[in-house]
Amino acid sequence: MKKIYPLILLVMLSLSSCAEDLDDNLKAAVTTQFNFTHNWNGLPVTAADFNTVKFANENSDSLSIERLRYVISDLTFTREHGEQLIIEGHHLIDVSEDIGLVYSPELEIPTGLYTNVSFTFGLNNEYNAQNHLDLNSVSFNVPEMLGGGYHYMQMDGKFIAASGEEVGYNYHSIRAVDNPGSNPTFPQDTFFTVDLGAINLENNATFEVKMDISEWYKNPNLWDLNELHTVLMPNSEAQILMRENGQSVFSLGTVTQ
């Protein structure tokens, strides 16, 4: 028996050490930061590039950008077996004013392997129906006759029309709506999930989230600004086309930790 006791003691110490390591791993948490960058088919775009007709979409429309702002929400970290850690709330990015390009959630994230990091482009229907003072203060609202709530994105500028004239455009994304008025109906959700992919979170991490603005105009729907440049908010078909094109707009860039 004298030979057995040391073995039992060794096993108990080993199990105790493993449990402590597991507890330490479960308790370890890190901060995350999301840097939103913008490009046009790979060429960097900042507010300094606005207000000049210098971009050309896939339809060969020459255009400028004068304002670009959009909202994301429900940043989500997903574990291997489907467990999700959701950072509730929304974040407004205004490229034209250099506001919100960096998002640093207050909630720390446990370290470990995550099969996906994602967020919602826009606001889901429940969240869209709530009152958000910060979005009210910057006039991000949608008129009640169009269902109320908030924009998902506002992109405005000018383009050179087929006539050769410079014409304004308003590429505004909202909840798709039919029958504008006192009893609007909603044919299809137009917010969508952006999947950034897997990450092994070991330390404080900074994620680059890239928006290729040109994708809003080409994939899978070739966008002709001569046909669709204004009055797009009450056009549910246009809103659905925007949602479809938005699927390829975002991608994950550099991750540092």
UniProtKB/TrEMBL annotation:
Endpoints of the signal sequence: 1-19
InterPro entries per UniProt: MbnP-like_dom (IPR046863)
Domain of life (superkingdom): Bacteria
Alphabetical UniProt keywords: Signal
Ranges of residues in domain Copper-binding protein MbnP-like: 33-222
Pfam families, A to Z: MbnP
Name assigned to this protein: Copper-binding protein MbnP-like domain-containing protein
Organism: Bizionia paragorgiae
